[in-house]
Amino acid sequence: MAFVIAGPTRLHGTNVGPQLQTLLIHQIRSIERHHMKKHLSRRRFLNLVGAAGGSTAVYKTSMALGLMQDTGPVAQLDLQKAGRNGKKVAVLGAGIAGLTVAYELERAGYDVTVIEASKRLGGRNLTVRHGDIIDELGQPQVCNFDDDPDLYFNCGPARIPGHHRRVLHYCKELKVPLQVKANMSRPAYTHEEGKFDDKPVRVGRYTADARGFMSELLHKAVDKNAFDQPLSAEDRERMLQFATAYGDLDPNGIYKGTIRAGYKSGGFITPAEHYTPMDFSALLDSKFWERGMTLSENPDWGEPLMEVTGGMDGLIKGLVRNISSPITTNAQVQSISLKENGVDVVYNHKGEREKLSVDYCFNSIPSHFMSGIPNNLPAEYRKGLASLQPGNFFKIGLQMKERFWENEGIYGGITNTSQKINQIWYPSHGIHGKKGVVLGAYAFFRQSAFFERMSPAARIEFAGKCGDKIHKGYSGYIEAGISVPWGRMNHMMGCGADWSPEIREKYYKLLQQPAGGRHFMIGDQISYHSSWQEGAFGSAEYALLELDKRVRAASARSGKG
Predict the structure, then answer these.
(1) Do residues 160 and 138 make contact, with C-beta atoms less than 8 angstroms apart?
(2) DSSP 488-542
(3) What distance in Å separates the CA atoms of residue 51 and residue 215, rounded to the nearest whole number?
């Protein structure tokens, strides 16, 4: 079936951005000039549109032409089918980004081969259970948790915010079950050495008192109208009402404590006894207001959060069971060579050198490894990769013989401490079971080096002593533990990429583009959300759309379709 393009061009109702819409209109008008009164197949027309704007443009244009119903967000990437002679693609790395590329290209008819350096799939999406190996350089560990499906530890990603739409899209599409994760818990603690008599303080109490005192100061300032630009009488009244409500002040604008700090005792069959406010100077002298009090208001940590039921690696399993393309593990890449019409990848598999010649290569190898892998990528491209510094994180998982924290009214959430362990996380699943696995330490970037110098046993002992300062008898509950220093994990040696503003300005757009039109760097390292799964999915999506744009442009030039 063919149709005629004629008359004024409109793209109303397509929700295409202004720059893309201008580009599309320019392309379509060019088509009109050359094909006026000529019949043009829909497929041919959409190829021409795709050459200008990629898959998203094709989808939106299809709706504008009445070829598709607007049923909401795009359900999947609308990649052009590869055809009978599907292009060959190598995917280097079987983490989130690599598996996503394999999944989408396979569905579009490409001939895909995945090469993974380690013995397992998933990259930094790592959930450990009974018997699993933690592949730390020089000191591998075996997870000795009980053989129980509820006793697992997410060593990498552990939270899914509601605005990480790509992660949630694939969870839904792949039928990966989710559960709510309690990231913030007011009954959990803040603990700072040398503050509050070195005792932990409930998060709810600290937060209520801090906001109460600040609201009292605001109330006084408003009452005196002590501003550079005095408030109107109406604004003053509204501000006084706001300060009173926000801080739970008394009618005179004084903070005298609040039920928001929690019950000290009673409140059900006996009269409630509320906490008296803590000393304001002590609150200011602590650092919880800087480190932890508002973390749940960050979009990436804002409630409600989710997690994959049974462990975050359920997302990896969902991808893998929907990929039929070959995935070769224990295969270390030894060289990458750009050719005029493709890419050659040489890798070592079980002691044998093998070569894979493909049309395109999607590479999620950590950027800090690329300098050690012989390649002929453009000099500026290599310089950009070499400029990135690896991020670093460290976690400890501890199996506890009793869920003692629930006796203290804590169900999920995080305790923050000034000690080197930084945080203790309480599991949101398995409530009222006998045992549970807590996160016993979470160190960031340079802090990780402190733990990396220790043996695994020493790390657990240290974490137990830190926990004793927060929960009575904490170390005595520890039955088993593992530690994961990402800076020492084989085939990783880091966690994401650390971009300085200057490096991002200079190299980010360059590294997003395919070197030689054939080699795509992917992964959360090539995103604005390094170390998050959403960054990995986003990077894969961007590279796939870029490939699709080029393929459609080539199809349009050849006149096929």
Answers:
(1) no
(2) GBTTTSSSSEE--HHHHHHHHHHHHSPBTTTEEE-SGGGSSSTTSHHHHHHHHHH
(3) 57
Task: For residue 11, give the DSSP letter.
Answer: -
Dihedral sign of CA atoms 499, 100, 330, 82 in order = negative
Amino acid at 431: I
Domain boundary assignment for the chain: 2-74, 88-121+315-387+497-556, 127-187+392-488, 201-286
Strands 414-417 and 497-498, by their bridges, are unpaired
CB of 482 closer than 8 Å to CB of 438: no
The structure tokens listed for 62 are: 């299809």
User: For residues 107 and 170, what is the distance between their CA atoms, to the nearest angstrom?
Assistant: 14
Domains 88-121+315-387+497-556 and 201-286 share a fold: no
Residue 425 CB neighbour total at 10 angstroms: 26
Q: What is the DSSP letter of 375?
A: B
* Per-residue b or e along 48-63, where b marks 16 or more CB atoms closer than 10 Å to that residue's CB: bbbbbbbbbbbbbbbb
Q: Which CATH architecture has domain 88-121+315-387+497-556?
A: 3-Layer(bba) Sandwich (3.50)
- What is the CATH number that goes with domain 127-187+392-488? 3.90.660.10
Contact 106, 323 (CB under 8 A): yes
Per-residue pLDDT of the chain (561 residues; tens, 9 = 90+): 333 333 333 333 334 444 444 444 444 455 445 444 445 555 555 555 554 444 445 444 544 544 433 333 434 588 999 877 779 999 999 999 999 999 999 999 999 999 999 999 999 999 999 999 999 999 999 999 999 999 999 999 999 999 999 999 999 999 999 999 999 999 999 999 999 999 999 999 999 999 999 999 989 888 887 777 888 889 889 999 999 999 999 999 999 999 999 999 998 999 999 999 999 889 888 888 887 888 778 888 888 899 999 999 999 999 999 999 999 999 999 999 999 999 999 999 999 999 999 999 999 999 999 999 999 999 999 999 999 999 999 999 999 999 999 999 999 999 999 999 999 999 999 999 999 999 999 999 899 999 999 999 999 999 999 999 999 999 999 999 999 999 999 999 999 999 999 999 999 999 999 999 999 999 999 999 999 999 999 999 999 999 999 999 988 887 665
- Please say whether the beta carbons of 522 and 364 come within 8 A: yes
Q: Is the peptide bond before 456 cis (omega within 30 degrees of 0)?
A: no
Within 10 angstroms of residue 229's Cβ, the number of other Cβ atoms is 5
Closest CA to 152 of 318, 315, 316, 309: 309
Which amino acid belongs to residue 80? Answer: Q
- The DSSP string of 27-59 is HHHHHHHHHTTSEEEHHHHHHHHHHHHHHHHHH
In the chain, DSSP finds a helix count (H) and a strand count (E) of 16, 28
| Type of residue at 118 | S
Residues 6+ apart with CB under 8 A from 476: none
Does the domain formed by 201-286 have CATH 1.20.1440.240?
Answer: yes
- Give me 380's structure tokens: 């500026």
- The CA radius of gyration of the chain, in Å to the nearest whole number, is 28
